[in-house]
Amino acid sequence: RTFRIAAIPADGVGKEVVAAGRAVLDALAEDSGGAFAFRWEEFPWGCAYYERTGRMMDEDGLERLKDFDAVYFGAVGWPTVPDHISLWGLRLKICQSFDQWANVRPVHFLPGVQSPLRKADDTELDWVVVRENSEGEYAGLGGRNLSGRGQGGEVAVQSALFTEVGCERIMRFAFDLARTRAHKKVSSVTKSNAQQYGMVLWDDVFKRVALDYADVETESVLVDAMSAKFVLRPEDLSVVVASNLNADILSDLGSALAGSLGLAASANLNPERRFPSMFEPVHGSAPDIAGQGLANPIGAVGSAALMLEHFGLPDQAARLNKAIEATTAAGILTRDVGGTATTEDVTKALIDALDT
Ligand code: NAI
Ligand code: MG
User: Fold this and answer.
1) Which domains does the chain have, with CATH numbers?
2) How far is it, in rounded angstroms, from Cα 253 to Cα 230?
3) Rounded to whole angstroms, how far apart are CA atoms 245 and 268?
4) DSSP assigned state of 312
5) Strand 2-10 and strand 277-281: pairing?
6) What are the tens digits of pLDDT across the range 98-153?
7) CA distance 326 to 24
8) Does residue 216 contact residue 210 with C-beta atoms inside 8 Å?
9) Residues 112/289, Cβ–Cβ less than 8 Å
């Protein structure tokens, strides 16, 4: 079968890592002897597009995306455009319009990659951060009192939205995922000591949903304590479910602990499959290294593996993940993980490793 994929490389290293991911996926399809194929369409949206047209994406952009099997995304954001405009105009717009309410972010060690946590060889790190991706702190609710602007008296309100439906579906998603794993545990990240409405609802729903999953171990941890736990007791975690902002912060921490932000993969899922899901590395556009061949493509390629799983091709996803491990184990590493290989070197090595 042919899968139709919309590629949106967008900005900075997004362009380099999407090109890498496409090359690896095309090599995989070529190898399949026609069992499956990918048909790509690339969209030129992003900050450069905004500077030309005043829009981050076309007016009918969502309409054009909605019949694809998936969206393969790079990263959005460039210093010439305010970040809240670029993020809301493209990435958050797609996530919210296509009801991609579950953001799945696996974090694990890779062979040959140094981690600040890997003191002893037996330290384990194998988590999935499950991020609520439709509401919470990124609901976009609030406003600025512009009348006082420039006079030192301005006030801004940024509200978080928590609904019972929104909390329950992400928690059930986390519990269902935990059941498929060796370590059957869900850790809920909260801040209900200080945030006495939304986060208390979050906790209540977590306790209620947990009753339906007696076979899964649970804990509820304050986000500040959880950030310490990430560093001090990584082997104690399996599935970590958190609100939009908390999970955003914790997953960058998690990927840094695994070795680099450039390694981290993610899937923005519409679990009902009414709309396409979107697959993208966790990292941003990295203006500091963009255009120099320094970007680590592994986060983007790992995201492609999540896309293959979503397509119902788990064996191909596993093949891709094995190729990633073979490449890092062989010491073919970009600068962020201590090597000297270019994006292209790693991409070539990944393609060669598909055969092993
Ligand atoms: P960033 O993730 O782009 O970069 C943070 C650090 O990680 C930088 O030192 C960068 O060089 C490094 N890094 C990131 N990706 C890498 C890769 N593939 N290989 C090697 N090193 C890598 O975050 P930053 O600097 O805070 O944001 C830059 C821009 O990206 C901003 O405009 C921001 O809004 C946007 N952004 C977009 C995201 C998205 O599209 N999903 C997510 C995060 C940030
Ligand atoms: Mg982030």
Assistant:
1) 1-103+264-356 (3.40.718.10), 115-258 (3.40.718.10)
2) 8
3) 15
4) T
5) unpaired
6) 999 999 999 999 999 988 887 655 667 899 999 999 999 999 999 998 777 778 88
7) 14
8) yes
9) no
Contact 103, 267 (CB under 8 A): yes
The verdict on pTM exceeding 0.90 is: yes
Atom of ligand 1 nearest to the CA of 300: 18
C-alpha 212, offset from chain centre: 28
Q: How far is the CA of 131 from the centre of ligand 1 (A)?
A: 18
CA distance 351 to 324: 9
ipTM score: 0.98
User: Which contiguous run of DSSP H or E holds residue 235?
Assistant: none
DSSP tag of 336: G
Rounded CA-CA distance 169/100 in Å is 12
pLDDT for res 121: 57
Give the largest Cα separation in the chain, rounded.
Answer: 68
CB 255 less than 6 A from any atom of ligand 1: no
Which of 100, 261, 346 has the most ligand 1 atoms within 8 A of CB, as the residue to mutate? 261
Using DSSP, state whether 153 is helix, strand or coil. Answer: coil
CA of 338 to the centre of ligand 1 (A): 18
Other beta carbons less than 10 A from residue 322's beta carbon = 14
